[in-house]
Design a protein that fits this description.
This protein is an alpha+beta fold and about 280 residues long. About 45% of the residues lie in helices and about 20% in strands. It has 3 domains: about 70 residues, Winged helix-like DNA-binding domain superfamily/Winged helix DNA-binding domain (Arc Repressor Mutant, subunit A), CATH 1.10.10; about 100 residues, Phosphorylase Kinase, domain 1; about 100 residues, Orthogonal Bundle (Transferase(Phosphotransferase), domain 1). The protein contains 8 helices and 12 strands. The longest helix is centred in the middle third of the chain and has 31 residues. The termini are far apart. Bound molecules: adenosine-5'-diphosphate (ADP). The site of adenosine-5'-diphosphate has 19 residues, from strand 3, strand 4 and strand 5.
């Protein structure tokens, strides 16, 4: 990012804006949006291509440019830096199906987590062998879908955090990137022993019920989406499939979440409880 000048970012933003209604953005349009002379835009674009932030492609009807994953990351990170939210980006701590998670720091060097949504990544790979027009269509929508996914997750985080559910504190969102508190702990999937499985089991099923009473069903309540913090308390770190309690299949999803935790505790901690919540236990508050 150090090698880029303000003009590069202006051109990069112009490509991003052009992609709202173009799969490939022609040079003339980039120049018009950026308000920069074509020659200078051309020069900036060749630098951006060299740094793999932008891709040049020959289309059927015309040639043009589109933003690359890395280019979109740069735009989000630069905006978060200039807002004074992010000061540094460190190691990658997680690779999810649809995101990359990094630890970072704010300008005062306090830890934080950056979650970069990457929707369409898997299907894009699968589509690679397929025909050209498919590939392009998929690529273009990636930008939009990842942004929507980040905004949705951030909104859920905010609501749940405000209601004192155990989730990481949301800090900011920009494009496809969410900034949140770093949980000092481990995903449940990596924990071999807990001091009191019965207590943890109770905490987890109570959380499922509490969410239900608030009108929500997690839908994917498993050991990968839960962490234990340094005090051994459970935290929900991810909820990609959350649905409303009014969803037609709400009861099915609720029971599936409960079964998932019961099965896991039986397998991993050799613990089985007689008691487990039923959908009828959820009375809306
Ligand atoms: P995905 O939705 O792509 O599966 P997750 O949100 O589950 O991604 O995160 C992937 C991994 O990143 C987690 O398993 C966890 O190790 C780590 N992680 C995510 N969020 C945090 C956080 N707030 N604090 C600490 N680690 C986190």
């Amino acid at each position: 990012m150090r090698y880029l000048e303000a003009q590069h970012f202006r051109v990069l933003i112009a490509v991003e804006m052009g992609m709202k209604n173009h799969e490939l953005v022609p040079l003339a349009l980039i120049s018009a949006i950026a308000g920069i002379h074509r020659g200078a835009v051309s020069k900036a674009l060749s630098d951006l291509i060299k740094h793999k932030l932008v891709i040049y492609e020959r289309g059927k009807r015309y040639d043009g440019y589109r933003i690359n994953y890395l280019g979109y990351d740069f735009l989000a990170l630069r905006a978060l830096c200039s807002r004074g939210i992010v000061g540094s980006v460190g190691n990658q701590i997680g690779v999810g199906k649809e995101s990359d998670v990094y630890v970072g720091g704010d300008p005062e060097l306090n830890d934080l987590v950056l979650k970069l949504h990457r929707l369409g990544r898997i299907s894009f790979r699968k589509l690679k062998e397929k025909r050209d027009y498919h590939k392009k269509r998929q690529y273009c929508s990636w930008l939009y879908l990842s942004r929507i996914a980040a905004l949705k997750e951030f909104t859920f985080l905010k609501v749940l955090h405000d209601k004192k559910f155990p989730v990481p504190k949301p800090i900011d969102v920009c494009r496809h990137v969410i900034v949140m508190e770093l949980i000092d702990g481990f995903p449940l999937s990596r924990i071999e022993h807990v001091p009191d499985p019965a207590q943890l089991y109770d905490q987890l099923v109570s959380l499922i019920v509490r969410l239900g009473r608030y009108g929500l069903i997690h839908g994917d309540f498993n050991e990968f989406n839960l962490m234990l913090n340094s005090k051994g308390e459970p935290m929900i770190i991810d909820f990609p499939q959350m649905v409303s309690i009014d969803h037609p299949n709400a009861e099915f999803y609720f029971n599936r979440d409960v079964i998932c935790i019961r099965d896991y505790f039986r397998r991993k901690f050799n613990y089985e409880s007689e008691e487990y919540p039923k959908f009828s236990d959820v009375e809306r508050k």
